[in-house]
Design brief:
Length: 156
C-alpha cells in the first residue's frame, strides 16, 4: 500500500553545511551596507531572522517593504543557530514563491546575533528581485532554479 510522506506541520528547513546554518535578515539599505562592510550585525539590538528564503522574500515583499529593502543571507555557526533556537521562536506559514501560504509552518527567530556566530554575510536582494521578475513574466520554471536548497534541519 502506498503511504504518502507528509511534511510535518512545523519544520525547520535551512541551507546548511556541516558547520553553518544560513538565516535571512531583511533590513534597511544603510544597515545592509554596514553589515556587508563589517561582515557582522551591529550588536546591541534584537533582530528577527528566518532560515526560510521564501518566508524572507514574503515578509520583505521582495525587498519593497520600507525598512526591509535589502535581504541578507547570514551564515551562522551551528552553535549560534542552536542558541537562537533557545530564544524567541515564532512559527508562520511557509510560503510558495508567489507568496501563497503552504500547509506547514516555517520558523522565525528573534534575538541578538553574537559577532562570533557570524561566519559570513551576503546580499541576496538581487536574487529575490530576479525571482519576482521571473514570476511576473510567468517563468516559474526559471524562478525555482534560483531558490536555495533548504533541507530539514536536524536538531542536535
Amino acid at each position: 500500500m502506498f503511504e504518502e510522506k507528509r511534511v510535518p506541520d512545523r519544520q525547520i528547513r535551512a541551507a546548511q553545511t556541516d558547520t553553518t546554518v544560513r538565516v535571512y535578515l531583511a533590513c534597511s539599505p544603510a544597515a545592509a551596507d554596514a553589515a556587508l562592510e563589517k561582515q557582522t550585525i551591529e550588536p546591541g539590538g534584537s533582530v528577527e531572522v528566518t532560515p526560510s528564503f521564501r518566508l524572507a522574500a514574503f515578509e520583505s515583499d521582495n525587498g519593497r517593504k520600507p525598512g526591509h529593502e535589502r535581504i541578507l543571507a547570514v551564515d551562522l555557526t551551528r552553535e549560534g543557530f542552536e542558541q537562537l533556537l533557545a530564544g524567541h521562536v515564532e512559527w508562520a506559514p511557509e510560503r510558495d514563491l508567489d507568496h501563497t501560504p503552504l500547509n506547514f509552518q516555517a520558523i522565525r527567530l528573534g534575538g541578538e546575533l553574537a559577532e562570533e556566530w557570524v561566519t559570513g554575510i551576503t546580499d541576496v536582494t538581487p536574487v529575490i528581485r530576479d525571482i519576482a521578475g521571473l514570476l511576473a513574466t510567468d517563468q516559474l520554471h526559471l524562478a525555482v532554479k534560483l531558490v536555495p536548497h533548504e533541507p530539514p534541519y536536524e536538531l542536535g
